[in-house]
Design brief:
The chain is α+β, with helices and mostly antiparallel strands. The protein is built from 21 helices and 24 strands. 46% of the residues are buried.
Length: 637
């Protein structure tokens, strides 16, 4: 998706024109393979760093465009949302001190963007999914104002033909709907690249697939989305559903999601992937730039293959083939899209080193991994690692259902070490980066484990805890220590308590008991007694908020004559109809004013007619308690 001059594929004629250019590019690429024009004999590595931007309240900050303008550095570029940024590292020859040089440039570029961001009151967060991110942050107004992003959104939404449903189940479950592709903006990653020669591509691509489960199990860093505890690496499920163009139907046709791990091992060539992706996935974007690749070849110029690269950029394989040109010489590489951003730069380089080492070590140990490992087992392990991280049971050659941490320590770390050593990587780098992985696995403390442990240890409202976790991430990342050495998050890192309650969605309760309007009143009475609550929202059969029953209205009913006459009165007869509501993105101060003016003790929070939260007097009492405690500490200090 690096191409800027793109648009939606549009009508049939535009789609046919682009498909013609795409097939022409593919034929040119095939010619280049046959003629030996693709670079071989050189191994290079590279990386792309994605990140979140947050404001002084640790909420997403839509400041990417201003930060980019302030820096004016071609290493940096936009992402889908204005609260995301990306920078690209310079490619490095794989060997010697390449890993330490990668870490040095990562830190230098991160320091640069931190400095530019701080001038705007913005902080940088490296996280697979930002803990404080809410669905209300995903409006089109937060999409980066770039035609290619609007074109992508229009094209994918048109293909899908409906809103995007998101359903993921972990310790909690999330079931939400959104009207754009902005779910994709919830994810940030640390994507690493491994250049291969054309003759070895199939072999090495299969290795990349085979080692993805253990590498991901050791690197999970995305356990929370919208306050829900889901998978250890929730990005995997989220990204697949975020750009899924499939719709449900009555036919039994087997179709693949645009985000995919793949269906089988490669046999001979990268062409198998490009051909399959053209055959399976509809064209969604096109470009007015239509170079003739064969004319370039006749001039001795490496063709850009813009159509092929553009289409390839809209099919999101977790290990994706990439065509590129460096110093006028074309090459191919494998892009690993599995690794999340964070928890620290050191952790990220350690993850990359682990993967690079396995690419070499496994290919040395097993000349054809496809002959000794079943692809379906690997694909199943990929999902297990995403769900459970180090708690997953994984398979390997002649071994099935082995604990991930045992396989990593006894099999994969030694293989990675040998792979790095055989490619001439400095011994000090090998010890440093694989030592980080070993310490992390021994302590069973990935970024996901640290986040979940901190969430459990902290006491207070969910919004308060997520803010503290985000703030602690930033502090630890600036210190540069690996996650295995991080202490649990603490409230002191997030600063003033008032930052945690600026918006209704940060304070509202989401674990709500509701009743249907046709239920009997007795159920409401029992709910209030069992759960010690004073307000019960009422919904219709489409789960839309239609009323509210308060403790006071219930007492009035119980004291009335109707109670003795009819024991089966439906809730709709005593509920307050069309109650006053607020939206999740309203300010907390506005909500307080509404409750004060209306003299109500409960304010339902509604999005598009559906209940998403509840604010009560008790919630504001908790804020008051924190304020009093803070003021008393200031006075005693």
């Amino acid at each position: 998706m690096g191409e800027q001059d793109v648009k939606s594929a549009g009508g049939h004629e535009a789609r046919r024109a682009f498909m013609k250019a795409l097939l022409n590019d593919l034929r040119a690429f095939e010619h280049m393979l046959e003629a030996g024009m693709i670079e071989s004999g050189v191994r290079r590595i590279g990386a792309e760093q994605e990140m979140f931007l947050v404001d002084s309240a640790w909420q997403p900050s839509a400041s990417a465009v201003q930060i980019l303008e302030a820096m004016g550095d071609p290493h940096f570029t936009t992402e889908l949302a204005q609260f995301n940024l990306e920078f690209n590292l310079d490619p490095l020859v794989f060997g010697g001190d390449c890993l330490s040089r990668m870490e040095t440039q990562l830190n230098a570029l991160l320091d640069k963007v931190r400095a530019a961001a701080s001038n705007l009151g913005t902080q940088i967060v490296l996280a697979g999914i930002l803990p404080t991110l809410r669905q209300s942050h995903l409006g089109i107004e937060n999409m980066t104002p770039n035609p290619r992003y609007y074109a992508l959104n229009d094209a994918l939404t048109s293909l899908r033909g409906s809103d995007y449903d998101l359903r993921i189940k972990g310790a909690d479950e999330i079931l939400v709907r959104h009207n754009s592709v902005m779910y994709e903006a919830c994810n940030t990653s640390f994507q690493v690249h491994f250049q291969t020669g054309p003759d070895e591509f199939a072999k090495l691509y299969n290795v990349a697939q085979a080692v993805t489960p253990p590498v991901m199990a050791a690197a999970t860093n995305s356990p929370i989305l919208f306050g829900r505890r889901l998978w250890k690496e929730t990005r995997i499920a989220l990204f697949q559903q975020a750009v899924d163009t499939r719709s449900s139907g009555s036919h039994a046709q087997e179709r693949e999601a645009r985000v995919t791990f793949g269906r089988r091992w490669l046999d001979e060539s990268v062409l198998e992937i490009f051909r399959e992706d053209i055959a399976r996935f509809r064209v969604v974007l096109s470009s007015d730039q239509s170079d003739d690749p064969f004319a370039d070849l006749a001039k001795g110029i490496a063709p850009q293959l813009r159509a092929l690269r553009l289409h390839n950029g809209t099919v999101y394989r977790w290990n994706r083939p990439c065509y590129g040109i460096l110093d006028g010489v074309p090459h191919i590489r494998i892009e690993n899209r599995v690794l999340p951003a964070g928890p620290s730069i050191l952790d990220e380089v350690a993850n990359a080193a682990f993967w690079f080492g396995l690419m070499s070590g496994v290919s040395d140990e097993y000349p054809d991994i496809a002959k000794v490992l079943d692809f379906d087992d690997v694909r199943s392990d990929f999902t297990a690692a995403a769900r459970l991280g180090l708690d997953a049971q994984l398979s390997w050659v002649e071994k099935k259902s082995v604990p991930a941490e045992e396989l990593i320590c006894k099999v994969f770390l030694p293989l990675s070490r040998e792979g790095l050593k055989s490619r001439g990587i400095d011994s000090s780098s090998i010890d440093r980066y694989l030592g980080v992985i070993e310490e992390r696995v021994d302590a069973k403390k990935t970024g996901a484990h640290w986040t979940m442990g901190s969430l459990s240890a902290l006491k207070g409202s969910l919004g308060d805890r997520l803010t503290a976790i985000t703030a602690s991430m930033v502090r630890n990342q600036k210190e540069g220590t690996p996650v295995a050495q991080w202490k649990p998050a603490c409230f002191e890192d997030s600063g003033a308590w008032r930052h945690n309650f600026l918006r209704v969605e940060q304070l509202m309760r989401t674990d709500i008991f509701t009743v249907n309007e046709e239920e009997i009143v007795d159920l409401v009475a029992n709910l209030m007694d069992w759960e010690k609550i004073r307000h019960v929202p009422v919904e219709d059969n489409q789960n839309r908020l239609v009323g509210l029953v308060s403790h006071r209205s219930l007492l009035r009913y119980l004291a009335s004559e109707r109670r003795s006459k009819d024991e089966s009165v439906p809730v709709r007869e005593i509920m307050q109809k069309n109650p006053i509501t607020t939206s999740p993105d309203a300010s907390t101060l506005e909500a307080m004013e509404v409750m004060r003016r209306a003299r109500i003790g409960c304010l339902p929070v509604v999005r598009e007619g559906h209940l998403v939260g509840l604010l009560t007097e008790r919630d504001f009492m908790e804020i008051a308690g924190q304020l009093i405690e803070e003021k008393l500490r200031e006075s005693s200090g």
